[in-house]
Amino acid sequence: MNWLMSTLGSSIGKKLMMALTGLGFIGFLTAHLAGNLTLYGGSEAFNAYAEKLHTLGPLLTLMELGLIAFAITHISTGILLFIQNRNARPVRYARDERAGGRTWSSVTMPYTGFIILVFVVFHLLNFSFVDKTNTTIFEIVSSAFARPLYVAVYVSVMIVVALHARHGFWSALQTLGANHPKYMPTLMVLSLVFSLMVGLGFGLLPIYIALRV
Ligand code: HEM
Question: Pocket of ligand 1, candidates 75, 117, 128: which has the most ligand atoms within 8 Å of its Cβ, to mutate?
């Protein structure tokens, strides 16, 4: 427990926590997107995927508990870093000296993170914590995206998720040591590819379902 307190107490320890938990979310998003792509296969394919996922039983519960622990760590450490950075820098820099500089994604990280948190609560209330006795998960998703407001919310939030993922992916790899100038262009391309995959992969699904209903 002592090592945890001293790690969280230092700036680099906090950044390390953010990087490791952030990479965990990148893994989750990739797996979630791969599973959700079965929506393109229609009702049978998506319901079969969801059923298979739930047959994992205790393993799924373990992964869900892991996700919750990662979320608590990521959010609380993020808030601590945000406060620490604000207090350390009462006068804002005219120019940011961090490698990679200030980008739209980097500056908006705390705000995009907050929007994602609110979205995840909304998302779970709609798709996870619902009565599934007389319906299927495909019907739940289809009737949600039959409402234009839901499509608009999901598409907008997927742009926010893509922005957060773009800087998060790049920043996590930097923290873990991939900060040699030689690797910088490759990391930039990788983070852009990942954010496009997340933005377009998730963002096009509600539109496809809405047009097909
Ligand atoms: C178009 C985009 C998305 C669709 C259609 C979608 C669909 C779903 C569905 C149907 C479930 C319930 C699965 C089940 O209980 O069988 C679910 C769970 C979940 N989704 Fe999404 N999702 C989308 C985007 C996202 C994004 C961007 C995030 C995170 C930022 C996310 C986070 C979660 C989480 C944390 C769960 C709970 C997982 C679990 O309890 O095992 N989803 N999603």
Answer: 128
Question: How close is the Cα of 76 to the center of ligand 1, in Å?
Answer: 22
In the 8-state DSSP scheme, what is residue 39?
G
Q: What is the rounded distance in angstroms from the CA atom of residue 120 to the CA atom of residue 103?
A: 25
Domains in the chain: how many in total? 1
Q: Which domain holds residue 146?
A: 2-212
Residue 153 near residue 205 (C-beta atoms within 8 A): no
| Beta-carbon contacts of residue 81 (< 8 Å; ≥ 6 apart) | 11, 14, 15, 18
Ligand 1 site residues (CB inside 6 A) read: 32, 36, 50, 53, 64, 67, 116, 120, 123-124, 127-128, 137, 141, 154, 161, 202, 205-206
Q: Taking all residues of the chain, what is their mean pLDDT, rounded to a whole number?
A: 89
In tens, the pLDDT along 137-178 reads 999 999 999 999 999 999 999 999 999 999 999 999 988 887
> How many C-beta atoms lie closer than 10 Å to residue 14's C-beta?
20
CATH number at residue 61: 1.20.1300.10
Residue indicated by tokens 């790690």: 7
